[in-house]
Task: inverse folding
């Protein structure tokens, strides 16, 4: 890799570190190609990404970025899982680490907040952006459906009383 390619890689990593809601650092020693492809596929399904980069270049790219605290974790065979959604990458990494002992989560960062292993696990247990939007939409729609039910209830009650009276009269 020549100097220009290294500079381009540092720029790409800098963009990733700048725009990501969460970055998770893990050791991947012993993962097979198929297992790594599985991790990438899981990440792709939730709009997250997985990247293996040289630690030295990643440390250079981290300088002055909000998630610079992860530089201490960049030793050995490390893989970065990241996403704009502050929860998606953590969920993918944590879920894959549960299924595969070869992926060992070291920590991460959510913006300027450094995360240890327990922090990454806590973030992975939070609801995703889509789940939050769905629950908010449900909360907004619930009063309207309750009002509609309350308005329709008296008419339904009257109809059932009338039908009961008709049955007794017949």
Result:
């Amino acid at each position: 890799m020549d100097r220009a390619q290294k500079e381009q890689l540092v720029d790409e990593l800098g963009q990733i570190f700048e725009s990501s809601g969460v970055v998770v650092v893990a050791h991947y020693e012993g993962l097979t190609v198929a297992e790594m492809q599985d991790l990438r596929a899981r990440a792709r399904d939730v709009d997250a990404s997985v990247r293996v980069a040289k630690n030295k270049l990643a440390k250079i790219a981290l300088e002055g970025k909000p998630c610079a605290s992860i530089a201490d974790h960049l030793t050995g065979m490390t893989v970065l899982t990241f996403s704009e959604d502050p929860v998606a990458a953590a969920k993918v990494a944590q879920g894959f680490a549960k299924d595969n002992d070869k992926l060992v989560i070291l920590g991460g960062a959510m913006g300027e907040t450094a995360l240890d292993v327990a922090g990454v696990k806590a973030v992975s247990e939070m609801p995703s952006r889509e789940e939050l939007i769905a629950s908010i939409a449900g909360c907004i729609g619930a009063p309207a459906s309750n009002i509609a039910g309350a308005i329709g209830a008296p008419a339904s009650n009257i109809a059932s009383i009338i039908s009961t009276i008709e049955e007794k009269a017949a």
